Amino acid sequence: MTEVNEILMSVLSTIRVPRPGDRVHKDECAFSFASPESDGGLYVCMNSFLGFGSKYVERHHVKTGQRAYLHITRTRKTQKEDDNNSGSGDPPKKKPTRLAIGIEGGFDVEQEQYEEEVKVVLFPDRQEVTSEDLASMPDVVRERVSLSMAGLLAADSVSHTLQVQQWDGEVRQESKHAAELKQLDNGIKIPPCGWKCEVCDLQENLWMNLTDGKVLCGRRYFDGSGGNNHALLHYQQTGYPLAVKLGTITPDGADVYSYDEDDMVLDSKLPEHLSHFGIDMMTMEKTERTMTELEIAVNQRVGEWEVIQESGTTLRPLWGPGLTGMKNLGNSCYLNSVMQVLFTIPDFQTKYVSNIDKVFNEAPSDPTQDFKTQVSLFVQGDKVGVASHMFKALVGRGLPEFSTNRQKDAQEFLLHFINMVERNCRSGLNPSEAFRFLVEEKIVCRQSQKAKYTQRVDYIVQLPVPMDQATNMEELQEAERRREEAESSGAPPSAAPRAQIPFAVCLAALSEPETLTDFWSSAVQAKTTATKITRFASFPDHLVIQIKKFTFGLDWVPKKLDVSIDVPDTLDLSSLRAMGQQPGEELLPEVAPPPLMTPDVEVKGILGFHGNEEDDSLYSPLNPHISTPVLDDSTVSQLCEMGFPLEACRKAVYYTGNTGIDAAMNWVMGHMEDPDFSAPLVLPGSSSAPGTTPTESLPEEHLVTIVSMGFSRDQATRALRATNNVLERAVDWIFSHLDDLESMDVSEGGRSGGGSEASREPPPGPRVRDGTGKYELFAFISHMGTSTMCGHYVCHIKKDQQWVIFNDQKVCASEKPPKDLGYLYFYRRVVE
What we know:
Layout: H1 2-11, E1 42-45, E2 51-53, H2 57-64, E3 68-76, E4 100-101, E5 114-122, E6 127-129, H3 131-134, H4 139-154, H5 158-162, E7 167-168, E8 173-174, E9 206-209, E10 215-217, H6 230-238, E11 242-245, E12 256-258, E13 263-266, H7 270-275, H8 291-299, H9 304-309, H10 333-342, H11 346-354, H12 356-361, H13 371-376, H14 389-396, H15 410-424, E14 437-445, E15 451-458, E16 461-463, H16 473-489, E17 499-501, H17 503-511, E18 514-521, E19 526-536, E20 542-547, E21 550-552, E22 558-560, E23 563-565, E24 570-572, H18 633-641, H19 646-655, H20 661-671, H21 700-707, H22 713-722, H23 727-736, H24 738-743, E25 746-747, E26 750-751, E27 774-784, E28 792-799, E29 802-807, E30 810-813, E31 822-829
Parallel strand pairs: 8-13, 16-20, 17-23
Antiparallel strand pairs: 1-2, 1-3, 3-5, 4-7, 5-6, 9-10, 9-11, 11-12, 12-13, 14-15, 14-19, 18-19, 20-31, 21-22, 24-27, 25-26, 27-28, 27-31, 28-29, 29-30
Helix pairs in contact: 10-15, 18-19, 19-20, 21-22, 22-23
């Protein structure tokens, strides 16, 4: 032990004791999915606290010179077989009684028990030191090494901190309205039974408003069942926020919903609030299913779930290169499905797989925070299934919608990930170019017959679903008639048939001309009617098609369309190729319309509208002398009546230029997830607007963040000013204006004097690939459930002419790929 003593003495200064705030990676390798349970265990550097599998620890030692590592190995304990086990060796699954994961009564999760062995290993000779060995070493060595070992073992690992071990969907928060809820003294007393909606006489799914005692029906569900939205409409008209579901009241509580907070809530004064309307909570009995019970039933729904997961057949497990599953880290199936598909695409394989050793060799000192390194991890793993908490945390950092364990929309995550790839591939191969294509929009003024052409970049084709063209329309109409009869008689509705929609009509709906009723024509200098035609200006190597299954009903209640679409294995879009300006076709004059400001665009003066030749900035947010634009109060009111926040409604009307309810509603639908959706609208000329004057200071930390991504300080300054100093929006803005920024000499004072506008080269267009419009299907992602915010995702990928289903960590040969029920479809170009 003398030699070991000497080595420990020589490296003692490099052995650290973890302190509060230190990131300890003791569950996952920085370069692979190795863990203490893997062969060879995990080596934790006792200086940086980074973890490394046996394959990569030597690399870290050589690169950094660190010698002392805590070696952690875990061996799974042998569990005693339950007396109730079935003959297959699997215990019978208990029916869930709680909307929860990982707790008693919730949905089952695997719980493994391990035996752990810990020792210090000294490199390069891999000499081992156990806790017993330390007892015979000098005090200074024993104390420092023992404290470091104990600190590492006691510290919460980064993955543990990031991972939610349990989730309880029944945990509700106290409503902010409960304590001071206003109740009207209107003399209303509610009987203990015999309720019906005061508007439509519906006798189920009834909610009593806790302010005025009105009994009204609840929301209409996606399948047409439920109520007629009268309770919601009552809130929109009165603003009374809390309602209790009649039939769920018991001495233990009841379902209480807050329309203002848009969630199920707790009301600590519920007995008092019910008593105000003559309801004795202690004598009430439950007569209806609670919202939790309804949601559990939805999550266990047979039909779509079984078909998409191919539950009715015995599937043959697969493993090997390209066949590694991914563990679900808590509603991470949307991420798993998208990443599985992306890594079958050659561009992503070349970028992150082919030169993986180069990626790891060039990784920074903390590879857990490096995008390229963490993406490359998805080629590692074994047949058991990989799980990267570090990757999930990295891609979700700074974005609440992707940094929690809530379910997300796979399409939104795909676009978010493509955006991250764009940001991190400003030089060299950019794999997202495989999806990038140009869209040409041709607008023809019907009054002057003159045309306008514009192009934009896109990554996904969103395909509408014309429900009125279902091939089984008679069956659907008969089912609707039976549903209405059941509703009027109080009988439970029968299962509705699935609409059969031809893919051809979806494609036709995408390409058919669109009528614009409020188009401002520069030819006639007024609003008129125009026709818009959308075509492909280029065809990408890989085409992503989204079926727009998630929509809103006429009452603006979200719903998912239950449809079956005969999506083809091969696709020819050649007929949708844009043709550009035609011979003899006149273009609309390049005269700007009345100003229309959007949150992400810097508004400039409109010459000849508000300004003159000497002053082109009169209609600019930088000018404090502008009169405040007038908003259409009627449109604002209509939006507010639908339940949207007042400030969001004002923004919608303002940013769509008072062009009507349809345009404003589309703006609301497209910006509901914005972090500042409900923030006050700051109009031009308001001195309170952040970033509205050139001299106002910009957040230095925001500037540093953008500059660290490879942009100049001038470019960062312009992006922040264009987006009111909101960092996330500034980053999106700068990436959507790359051509302008790279072709202009931007300074904090405006344009530089070096060269005139006429002498500048036109900015280069976005880099896109082009080729034939013929494609073949190679993957699709399917969603099960009623909303993108709940349910489950799986993907099917065609490998060597065999369809394979990836259901989180389960990878099997597919027997009946449900191609008609997909949500996202991935095609690759057919090379002729």
